[in-house]
Amino acid sequence: MHEVSLCESTIEIIQKQAQQHSVKRVTGVWLEVGALSCVEESALRFCFDVVCRGTVAEGSQLHIIHKPAQAWCWDCSSEVEITQHEAQCPKCQGFSLRVDSGDTLQIKELEVE
Questions:
Q1: Is 38 annotated as a binding residue?
Q2: Residue 1 has pLDDT above 60, yes or no
Q3: pTM of the model
Protein backbone atom coordinates (compact mmCIF):
# COMPACT_ATOMS: atom_id res chain seq x y z
CA MET A 1 0.00 0.00 0.00
CA HIS A 2 1.93 3.03 -1.26
CA GLU A 3 -0.61 5.43 0.26
CA VAL A 4 1.27 5.16 3.58
CA SER A 5 4.54 6.42 2.10
CA LEU A 6 2.68 9.14 0.17
CA CYS A 7 1.05 10.33 3.40
CA GLU A 8 4.34 10.19 5.30
CA SER A 9 5.98 12.36 2.63
CA THR A 10 3.01 14.74 2.70
CA ILE A 11 3.22 15.13 6.48
CA GLU A 12 6.98 15.77 6.29
CA ILE A 13 6.31 18.64 3.87
CA ILE A 14 3.46 19.99 6.01
CA GLN A 15 5.59 19.90 9.16
CA LYS A 16 8.48 21.70 7.42
CA GLN A 17 6.13 24.39 6.15
CA ALA A 18 4.49 24.75 9.56
CA GLN A 19 7.88 25.17 11.21
CA GLN A 20 9.07 27.71 8.64
CA HIS A 21 5.93 29.82 9.12
CA SER A 22 5.54 29.35 12.90
CA VAL A 23 2.23 27.51 12.51
CA LYS A 24 0.98 25.71 15.59
CA ARG A 25 -1.85 23.74 13.99
CA VAL A 26 -2.94 22.71 10.50
CA THR A 27 -6.72 22.32 10.28
CA GLY A 28 -7.19 21.55 6.59
CA VAL A 29 -5.15 20.00 3.79
CA TRP A 30 -6.08 20.09 0.10
CA LEU A 31 -4.41 17.38 -1.99
CA GLU A 32 -4.67 17.25 -5.75
CA VAL A 33 -4.71 13.62 -6.90
CA GLY A 34 -4.14 12.83 -10.55
CA ALA A 35 -6.41 10.33 -12.28
CA LEU A 36 -3.43 8.13 -13.16
CA SER A 37 -1.71 8.28 -9.77
CA CYS A 38 -3.02 4.84 -8.73
CA VAL A 39 -4.09 6.23 -5.36
CA GLU A 40 -7.06 4.61 -3.65
CA GLU A 41 -8.98 7.46 -2.01
CA SER A 42 -10.29 5.50 0.98
CA ALA A 43 -6.81 4.12 1.72
CA LEU A 44 -5.34 7.63 1.36
CA ARG A 45 -7.86 9.06 3.83
CA PHE A 46 -7.22 6.27 6.35
CA CYS A 47 -3.43 6.55 6.08
CA PHE A 48 -3.58 10.33 6.31
CA ASP A 49 -5.47 10.17 9.60
CA VAL A 50 -3.01 7.63 11.01
CA VAL A 51 0.13 9.46 9.87
CA CYS A 52 -1.15 12.81 11.20
CA ARG A 53 -1.31 11.55 14.80
CA GLY A 54 1.09 13.45 17.02
CA THR A 55 1.84 16.10 14.36
CA VAL A 56 0.71 19.67 13.72
CA ALA A 57 -1.86 18.21 11.31
CA GLU A 58 -3.53 15.88 13.82
CA GLY A 59 -7.30 16.15 13.40
CA SER A 60 -7.03 18.16 10.19
CA GLN A 61 -9.61 17.71 7.48
CA LEU A 62 -8.38 16.18 4.22
CA HIS A 63 -9.87 17.61 1.03
CA ILE A 64 -9.19 15.72 -2.18
CA ILE A 65 -9.20 17.46 -5.55
CA HIS A 66 -9.45 15.00 -8.44
CA LYS A 67 -7.41 16.05 -11.45
CA PRO A 68 -8.08 14.45 -14.84
CA ALA A 69 -5.12 13.25 -16.87
CA GLN A 70 -4.11 14.98 -20.08
CA ALA A 71 -2.67 13.21 -23.10
CA TRP A 72 -1.68 14.08 -26.65
CA CYS A 73 -3.11 11.90 -29.40
CA TRP A 74 -0.62 11.33 -32.20
CA ASP A 75 -3.38 10.03 -34.49
CA CYS A 76 -5.70 13.07 -34.47
CA SER A 77 -3.29 15.73 -33.10
CA SER A 78 -5.54 16.59 -30.16
CA GLU A 79 -5.02 17.13 -26.46
CA VAL A 80 -7.53 14.92 -24.65
CA GLU A 81 -8.57 13.94 -21.13
CA ILE A 82 -8.13 10.34 -20.08
CA THR A 83 -9.02 8.49 -16.90
CA GLN A 84 -6.80 5.41 -17.09
CA HIS A 85 -3.57 4.09 -18.53
CA GLU A 86 -3.87 2.32 -21.89
CA ALA A 87 -6.91 4.46 -22.72
CA GLN A 88 -8.24 5.12 -26.19
CA CYS A 89 -8.45 8.64 -27.56
CA PRO A 90 -12.01 9.84 -26.86
CA LYS A 91 -12.02 11.71 -30.20
CA CYS A 92 -10.64 9.22 -32.75
CA GLN A 93 -10.47 5.97 -30.70
CA GLY A 94 -6.75 5.69 -31.45
CA PHE A 95 -4.23 4.20 -29.03
CA SER A 96 -1.25 6.43 -29.85
CA LEU A 97 -1.39 8.60 -26.75
CA ARG A 98 1.42 10.41 -24.96
CA VAL A 99 0.45 11.02 -21.34
CA ASP A 100 1.39 14.56 -20.32
CA SER A 101 -0.09 14.84 -16.82
CA GLY A 102 -2.31 13.16 -14.26
CA ASP A 103 0.00 10.89 -12.30
CA THR A 104 0.88 13.27 -9.48
CA LEU A 105 -0.18 13.99 -5.93
CA GLN A 106 0.38 17.57 -4.79
CA ILE A 107 -0.38 19.65 -1.74
CA LYS A 108 -2.40 22.57 -3.09
CA GLU A 109 -3.43 24.38 0.08
CA LEU A 110 -3.11 24.32 3.86
CA GLU A 111 -5.52 25.84 6.34
CA VAL A 112 -3.77 26.86 9.56
CA GLU A 113 -4.40 28.42 12.95
A1: no
A2: no
A3: 0.85
